[in-house]
Amino acid sequence: MFILQVCGALNKAKIGYAIVGGYAVALHGAVRGTVDLDIVLDLSEKDYVASEKVFTGLGLQCRLPVSAKQVFRFRQEYIENRNLVAWSFFDPIRPANQMDVIITHDQSKMKVEILTIQGVKVRVASIPDLIKMKKDANRPQDLEDIAALRKLQKK
């Protein structure tokens, strides 16, 4: 399972991360289909560089010709002037394995819940942090996710 491969490798490398996006919504208990895995990293050059090594070690390729150092160093430029919010990777052998590193947020400022799935610790952003991120994105699917997450909060 792709999510477990990614999380296991990030855990082994001791990289701060949190699952966000559709997978996180589903892991919290809302019914949600999604194609790609979205994560947020600690906002540090060290973690960006280390994560790039993890991703390439898993056979993933970056969609853009940029390195981790470039993404980290020019992050604000990419966000503000190029509307780039995600550093994307894909597996050319298994095209369903896709992931985005959301560069607009810092995992170290988020509350993380740790789930164990098939023996792998999976770090998932808290419901309040997911709701905040979804509000920031403000797409139709994000508004649906917010409603579902709020229902989960009431339980």
Secondary-structure blueprint of this entry?
Elements: H1 2-12, E1 17-20, H2 21-27, E2 37-41, H3 45-57, E3 61-62, H4 68-73, H5 75-82, E4 86-90, E5 98-102, E6 112-117, E7 120-125, H6 127-137, H7 140-154
Parallel strand pairs: 2-5
Antiparallel strand pairs: 1-2, 3-4, 4-5, 6-7
CATH fold naming: Beta Polymerase, domain 2
Q: Hey, roughly how much beta strand do the residues contain? A: 15-25%
Overall 3D form: globular
Mean pLDDT: 94
- Class from helix and strand fractions: alpha+beta
Helix content: 40-55%
**Looking across the biggest beta sheet, what order are the strands in?**
1-2-5-4-3
Query: Biggest sheet: strands, sense, closure?
Result: 5 strands, mixed
What is the CATH top level name?
Answer: Alpha Beta
Please tell me the CATH architecture by its name. Answer: 2-Layer Sandwich
Tally of structural domains: 1
Report how far apart the termini are.
29 Å
Order of helices and strands: HEHEHEHHEEEEHH
